Hints:
The protein contains 5 helices and 3 strands. The protein is mainly alpha-helical and 115 residues long. The chain has a domain at 19-89: Multidrug-efflux Transporter Regulator, Chain: A, Domain 2. The chain starts with 18 loop residues before the first strand and ends with a helix.
Amino acid sequence: MLESTNLSPLPLIPEKRYFTIGEVSDLCTVKPHVLRYWEQEFSQLHPIKRRGNRRYYQREDVVLVRKIRNLLYERGFTIGGAKQYLAGTTNAASQKDIVRQLRKELEEVLNILKS
């Protein structure tokens, strides 16, 4: 059974180049051990490892983690189903998702600035 998670809107992704596993955990409301497990299950998720095997995620990795989280926790996919879904999406589709996510975040920032 999937653990109950907070499905409220996720925080904005800061403008940084690299994120630690703890930061990604907070940004995606997923525990670090789940992220490490997902790295084994999803070949698309591969953070850079440096200094003593410390993981550093890039913005694309954070967006992918959010996509995996959405598929598993919100849309009810199994791990196998999510793998098939992600394998079926083309690079262009994933770029469209990134642009869509960025646009949504920018609109949220604009709304905050207007108020």
